[in-house]
Queue: 2 jobs
Job 1
Amino acid sequence: MADRTPMPAELLRYLESRMQERADDIIRNVLQVPDYPPLPECPTCGVTPERIVSRVDDPGFLVDGQAVLVDFKPCGHGFTVPESELLRG
Ligand SMILES: [Zn+2]
């Protein structure tokens, strides 16, 4: 597994809100693929990604808590938000 940079929960929520606004914009304006608004930039390199892949990590046996993993493509920067961070505030 590639190393991932810890991401604060606030940044994850910001990215999620940006993604939601983008999805709303696409639906509201009935946009076709070439006119889709850009995805939020990668926090590490600032490049607009082609895809953002987010999933919940299954920590497996004897590991406490789950983490949300966020990977930007194609730059390859990856982030992790631990459950302890998500539950904070
Ligand atoms: Zn990047």
Job 2
Amino acid sequence: MEPTTNDIVNALQQHTNATDAAASIGLSYDQLKRRLAAAGLRTSAHYLDGSELSDEDQAILAGGRTDCDWLRSLAGCRKFASPEQIAALDALATHGSVAAAADALGMTAAALRSRLSEIERSSARRGYSPAHDMTHTVPLGFHVDGISQLRDAEGRIKQQWVKSKADKESRIALLMDAVQRIAEPFRGASELVAPPTHNNADLLSVYPMGDPHIGLFAWAQETGDSDFDLRIAETHLVAAVDRLVMLSPPSEQALILNLGDFFHADDQSARTKRGGHALDVDSRWAKVLSVGIRIMRRIIERALEKHDRVRVINEIGNHDDHSSIFLGVCLAQFFENNPRVEIDTSPNPFHYYRFGANLFGVTHGHTVKLAQLPQIMANDRAKDWGDTRHRFWYTGHVHHDQRKELIGCVVETFRTLAARDAWHNAQGYRSGRDMKLHVVHRERGRIMEHRVGVESLPMPGDAS
Ligand SMILES: [Mn+2]
């Protein structure tokens, strides 16, 4: 028998959301919505513009915790939400139920619920949870450490103390949120470079960038090497890639490998995370971060002039645990509009890429011994290992040239273009500085290598 309007109202009062209510009386969510509309009752969706509820509708909603109620309580949490969470709130507002919003977002209702619940939890950590009389919030970067209340005989709050503490564990999450917000206006903003007219589909050009250490400062008189700073790093890297792109034969694919330690310092403290060593840095960290992102943008755009497809792998180094992840996120957002670019944003310290009979492994090199790498590759990519004949590991970290033919694959470490700093000088590091290009044939393996030495690169301000 068709449920009556009363049945629908009762069902709404007994269930936590409209979808479950509809199911309990044998209706779909859409049927329930149509029935409510036909009866002159508003569905939850119509409350979401913030307009006043009618008395009748109040009665419906007061009994059951509908999605609409939830949304109203979530509205106050909006200012504590991340861009992803705001998108979830907006979808709920537009579609009126968790089920419909989850559908529109292409996620499960359970996943959306948990994302929405996280907004309540993060707001509560900041001191906002009106249902618990918590409305005194603490600033970004702090969390509520405890709340004490003094109530009178009627249970009314007479006094309340809010204690706050600076975040430690959530600092990274806040930074990630911040970076996503900062990068948001640039999402898909990359200018489309005209694709090359002819290319060899059997060739791949690999551009390994050994430890760029952007932001490193070196004073020649102290280090016995060259002066080095943010501007020199940018000039050298962009010019080196430009030359190597020129030297590369027309190859359909490019693989740009940032082998880690792209940034010299991971934050404004300018100290290493593990040893706490003071780092010689040029300029402010935020400036270094933005110049670093600009360098990668220019490198990728240059590669796009020559290659049809450009894939970028950013390795996490021991100097840039977090900023390397920021770099990947920013680049992925910026190039979102270009189907010819693929930015690998996986935070896994080992990355792989298969090209025909070639298998490439990439890692910074500070977490394992080089001799272990062949077995790690065989284990992580067992099928690809069996299907390929030419296998290579690209690693950085040690700042010098090393090529070892181990059983099953060639393991290689690369030099850096960065000058040595006072610490590396004192430790006795004396290796040369260059950048290489490897050209790889789909079946025949590595067929060509080019090298650009730092001595041939321009300095800032040189006529090009
Ligand atoms: Mn390094």
